[in-house]
Model the fold of this input.
Amino acid sequence: MNIKVCGITEMKQLQQLEGLDIDFAGLIFYNESPRYIGDKLPKKEVKKADFDLKKTGVFVDPEMIDVLDAIDEYGLDAVQLHGDESPEMCDDLSAEVEVIKAFRITGDEDIDKLVEPYDAVCDYYLFDTGGLKETLGGTGKQFDWNILTKAKIEKPFFLSGGIGVEDAGRLKAFKHPDFFGVDVNSRFETEPGVKDMSKVLQFKMGLK
Done:
């Protein structure tokens, strides 16, 4: 199971995630998030870092030029789009990097209908809880994952929203042919943007 740790704001922690063989690290470019990277991470250092993990920029309804600039300045490997970005934008970005399209799940959606317009234009989906400010603020709650078991989806997807160390067993038990990974954030922190690496390691071991 792939692990994405979102909300990284320190170079040292990015290096630590690489050392733990974490698969994706999320850098939040949404300035209303308490985990907004701003000038906290040195662009040149991040760009030249030879990591196996995928540096993933997280955006909410961005301008295309801002995403392209971030890809270039930080050497991003992937982008995660958390707003109402169009399939056309995803398609254009997919020529540059891998694209994760995030969807807010409240429980009333037809999942397959929701994702259908994006099927040919992104690499992964991410299913999260309702509110954007909750999600990127790191106070998201879990939705009923069983909603997804009734959907075909047919693209690798991440589960996200309020996931903690104690959920490792439930994640191992969750079954869907396209379940690809898990996205974690606030429940692995000592303060916003600072992760507790012992919890990350404990979680990783718990998923084995």
In short: The chain has a mean pLDDT of 93. The domain at 2-206 is CATH 3.20.20.70 (TIM Barrel). Strands lie at 2-6, 24-28, 54-59, 78-81, 98-104, 124-128, 157-160, 179-184, 189-191, 194-195.
